[in-house]
What we know:
about 300 residues; alpha+beta; Arc Repressor Mutant, subunit A; six-stranded antiparallel beta sheet; four-stranded antiparallel beta sheet; about 40% helix; globular; sequence-specific DNA binding
Amino acid sequence: MITYFRKDETILLLPHEDCERSSFGFKYLSPAGLPIRLINIGWDRVTSADYRWNGLKRGGGFVIFQYTLSGKGVLRDGTTLYSLSKDSAFITVVPSDTEYYLPEDSDEWEFLYVVVNGADAVNHFTEIQKKLGSVISFRDHPEPLMVVSKLYADVFHNPQLDKFAVSAVLYELLMSLHQLAEGRDIVRATEDMPASIRAAIKLLKSHYAQDLSIDDMADAAGLTKYHFCRQFLKKTGLKPNQYLRKIRVEQAAWLLRHTEKTVEAVAKETGFEYANYFIKVFRSFVGATPNEYRLGKKVDPVYFLRIEQ
Length: 309
């Protein structure tokens, strides 16, 4: 990968940029023997409002991954609208109540996309979608994009590329997305999350080691304590103090996995005053004590533990 600088930005020159815009479709004469197969891959730029795809009107059994290079598109997922700007991508499993299109306030939308089918494709992308959401920012995590970009360049230069080689690259994309889903500081699209709740979550993530009260969280959100607690539970599925403990346990798991600090030191560093209480909370979230987690007993320690509702 080559980089150069322009206006204080680092611009990535990706493999697909050595090619031209085009699209490639694949038809298979044999039954669906491969658990993941490439159906379409393309680099496109649309400027017409006629560009609109509905997830209930185009068959089913496949998945679309589409990454925005420039301009802006929109994804409607149920009743939620997401703005698709540079560095963001969407995942949609078809059929579903989704629609993506060029909005009236956008002159163009340029993107890379892949369409895949097969049991593994649907299962893995569905799981990734649950963890990361339908729209994901890749601004700080370009690895999955690099896989798609290189695959496009490979297909562009050799449309007869072996189908097994293509499937192997698609698995690389899946694993890259899984790795992202279990990484640190994942950036999710949160258009449906009120700014007040985002502000409270930002406070929790940056000051989790401090003795934060509900009043502190409500003040950050700019809401009364009662209204804040109701909204927070509604939007996150957890009460504010549960969410704070979740963040503390995730950070503790990271320290246990990547440092040799004692359990007592990890407890202190992640906001637990007493080690015994830390062990009790950690076990309730993870299903193992901190030492059992560190040693790989009961639960395998991973690069980063993510706790979801």
